[in-house]
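Sequence in, structure out. Go.
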Amino acid sequence: MAFWTQLGLLLWKNFTYRRRQTFQLLIEVAWPLFIFFILISVRLSYPPYEQHECHFPNKAMPSAGTLPWIQGIICNANNPCFRYPTPGESPGIVGNFNASIVSRLFSDVKRLLLYSQQDTSIKDVQKVLGKLRKLGNSSG
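Output:
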């Protein structure tokens, strides 16, 4: 059968079915109209208000690295809106979180870990404690 013949038969079958099921037909027509009128009433009761141009702070994706991704989540949790472009909107900049709490925390931890690796005073204290133990064992 040709396409138009099949389409005509399908539409005729659909029309016949709908004519027999009048209650179902009324619900199928009235329900979308009801929802549409609800949307219109909400739109009319809350008119749109004009808002300035909005620039959101950049948020790094996980592929940029774990630290920038975590900083983007923590530092922009409230998702503020600024009137002017943010520094992170420039191409090639991963994050503008250099002064954030998370960035300072990670830099402090990194500095402490690097300092403890270079610090020899802990080894000196361990040597002194070892000699004191030997001294205590030999005298007792």
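Check: The longest helix spans residues 22-45. The chain has three domains: 1-45, 51-99, 104-132.
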